[in-house]
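Continuing the batch. This is chain 6 of the set; chains 1 through 5 are on the previous pages. Same settings as before, nothing changed between runs. Recording input and output for traceability.
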Amino acid sequence: MPSALLSGLPSGFERPETFTSAFCLLPSDLMKRELTALVAAPLAIWMIGWANPYVFDAAMALVAALALYEFLDLGRHKGYHLPITLCIVVMLFIIAAFILEPISVEMGVFVTLLVIPGSYVVSGGNLEQALPSSAIAVLATLYVGMLGGSLIRLHDDFADGPKLVFFLLLVVWLGDSGAYYFGRTFGRHKLSPRISPKKTVEGLIGGVVSSVATAVIIHFTFFRNFPLLHAIIAGVILSAAGVIGDLTESMWKRSADVKDSGTLLPGHGGFLDRFDSIFYTTPILYVYWFLIIHDFKSFKIMSA
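Output for chain 6:
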């Protein structure tokens, strides 16, 4: 379970020469992945399910800060000047707005839109780079801050919040694993050759099947409050959305001509690599669960 929970497995799904090659990873890479998962998974399980919510919040703030650093580093690979420290500080303000009642999330968005572009005015940087540089800085800060903050709210806003986070991680990451193995074994038709040549339609189908199977197992084991039909629907939606989230980050990495966003997680790449699909799918699960518990009659999502 620890390995499956955290390692996910590579997101590319390529067709092998033989069936056995579907299970071939270099021993050193495999060992790195397994050791990272062995250390991190028990800690993650404790923080999600049993620790004080503020411990989980602080951990997610750290993950978001590291992911944002990696995101901005992609822009630096393109040659743009980006105020990394300022962006991280502003992003942490957005995260705080998701946690602390006196601060509104809207205020975090306003601070991002005002402070980061304004910093380029006073920095005296290259005018030709001002538009793309400030746009990348604002996008990265809002993307990681808003989506990372949504993960905190998913955990903290609902009585079943920890179970929802476990549901999200397992459905998305095990779906990713299923996509990898299905794609390597049966892959024939390219899904997005321009962005990720190894991904296949067969891998996508295998990922959806794996996510749905995971959702059903979760329903019957520890999350009976998640209605079975809705768990299946959520499995399909989260699996498909997770692929889009993964392709989105792959698009940015390909634009920056880098393989991984970072190296902080041995065998997994960076934090942005590991959480790209999670960030992308978190608000979707939040909205869906909110609608379920309100019988689809209220749409005041994440209201103060």
